[in-house]
């Protein structure tokens, strides 16, 4: 074979669940995989629209996630509120700068980086860009891989709240920021699964192979 | 030898039968298409059973305790999610409970069923369904993220009170290593090739991959 062929060009579909290569009955209704029974899709349905919707929703949640407090500490009647950045500063000033750096990267930079990366992938696919396909695929894999780590601060807040209940001396309560933060993580994780990396290659991938 | 479509870029390519430890990557985008495993069932099964035991310990033993001015408090994983719930953060509690308890337990239990079922010939169709569920749970199982979260919480709280790590935390630490070990030793492709087809000999016609009658 001279030119490399994609499954779609050959009228075939690779089942996303079991990997079986199936000849599509028709382009509009490819039917079900005969081996594992899951619905066949040549490309994930409405991939771009759905991913955009999730990215925009996550970007909106990212603002209150950073501005609203994630923890409120009550000591002897007075309450102090901490945002995510406040938590980073606390870790830094209490002498554990490696942890401050980890929380800063996982909670502030990773979610922002994921939103920018997904936005860039979506725009480049919509413009039918055919350059640096390999790099863009790698970027997509990184977004998929790193997504879970931005849940870090939600766990930190949860276990801090669960432990520090020494009333009447001290109590820690969660702030509304936690919920928005968890929403950002969940929305970007779903966005990574609705985005179809095969779209990156659909615009003239043959030039690269 | 079989023909596959790369899941990341859709390129059709032939993948040779791989020796144990061998790896075939997509020539265009670099996605790992297949890995060769010497023993697709018993090693992952042993690791999964170990993970199941640790999962039980991790969920029922306290992760850590805290004492200050004669008072003592301790918490488990579920206790953390429960505290979030009673503090009025129900949505967060559900997400934490799902990522820290339900998804890891789901992944381990579905994998256990897959590996136990895969020993039969022919492999029953429900094994495929369980495998799909295990794969669905995997991205949401965040044991390693939770472990780091617990450590950060411990250091933050250490400024306020005396903190003692509990037995559950060590279980979480080992579980954090076992889950990726299951993944690495497991080859979903080897299972799929043995699974009984949903529609044995009907249309649409099949291309490429070995059909059951040609799988010997
Ligand atoms: Zn590829």
From TrEMBL, chain A:
Pfam families: PqiA (PF04403). It comes from the Bacteria. One of its GO terms (cellular component) is plasma membrane. The chain crosses the membrane at residues 52-77, 97-124, 145-164, 176-195. It is found in: Cell inner membrane. Keywords: Cell inner membrane, Cell membrane, Membrane, Transmembrane, Transmembrane helix. Its main location: membrane. This is Putative paraquat-inducible protein A. It comes from Thiorhodovibrio frisius.
From TrEMBL, chain B:
It comes from the Bacteria. It holds the Pfam family PqiA. This is Putative paraquat-inducible protein A. InterPro entries: PqiA-like. The chain crosses the membrane at residues 45-64, 93-119, 140-161, 167-186. Keywords: Membrane, Transmembrane, Transmembrane helix.
């Amino acid at each position: 074979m001279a030119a490399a062929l994609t499954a779609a060009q050959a009228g075939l579909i690779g089942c996303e669940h079991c990997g079986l290569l199936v000849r599509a009955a028709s382009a509009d209704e490819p039917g079900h995989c005969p081996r594992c029974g899951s619905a066949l899709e040549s490309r994930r349905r409405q991939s771009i629209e759905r991913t955009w919707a999730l990215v925009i929703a996550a970007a909106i949640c990212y603002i209150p996630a950073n501005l609203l407090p994630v923890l409120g500490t009550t000591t002897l009647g007075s309450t102090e509120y901490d945002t995510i950045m406040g938590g980073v500063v606390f870790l830094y000033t209490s002498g554990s700068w490696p942890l401050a750096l980890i929380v800063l990267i996982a909670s502030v930079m990773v979610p922002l980086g994921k939103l920018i990366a997904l936005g860039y992938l979506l725009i480049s696919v919509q413009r039918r860009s055919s350059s640096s396909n390999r790099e863009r695929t790698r970027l997509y894999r990184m977004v998929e891989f790193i997504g879970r780590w931005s849940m870090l601060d939600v766990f930190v807040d949860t276990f801090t709240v669960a432990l520090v209940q020494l009333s009447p001396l001290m109590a820690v309560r969660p702030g509304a920021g936690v919920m928005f933060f968890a929403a950002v993580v969940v929305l970007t994780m779903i966005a990574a699964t609705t985005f179809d990396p095969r779209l990156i290659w659909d615009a003239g991938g043959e030039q690269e192979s | 030898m079989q023909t596959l479509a790369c899941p990341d870029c859709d390129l059709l390519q032939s993948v040779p039968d791989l020796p144990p430890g061998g790896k075939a990557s997509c020539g265009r985008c670099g996605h790992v298409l297949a890995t060769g495993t010497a023993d697709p069932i018993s090693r992952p099964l042993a690791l999964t059973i170990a993970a199941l035991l640790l999962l039980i310990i991790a969920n029922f033993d306290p992760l850590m305790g805290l004492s200050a001015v004669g008072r003592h408090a301790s918490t488990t994983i579920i206790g953390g999610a429960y505290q979030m719930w009673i503090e009025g953060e129900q949505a967060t509690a559900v997400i934490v409970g799902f990522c820290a308890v339900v998804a890891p337990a789901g992944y381990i239990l579905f994998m256990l069923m897959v590996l136990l079922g895969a020993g039969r010939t022919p492999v029953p169709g429900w094994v495929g369904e369980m495998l799909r569920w295990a794969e669905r749970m995997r991205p949401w199982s965040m044991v390693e993220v939770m472990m780091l979260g617990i450590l950060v919480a411990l250091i933050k709280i250490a400024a306020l009170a005396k903190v003692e790590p509990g037995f559950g935390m060590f279980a979480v630490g080992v579980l954090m290593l076992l889950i990726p070990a299951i993944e690495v030793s497991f080859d979903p492709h080897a299972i799929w090739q043995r699974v009984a087809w949903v529609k044995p000999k009907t249309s649409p016609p099949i291309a490429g991959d070995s059909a059951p009658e040609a799988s010997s």
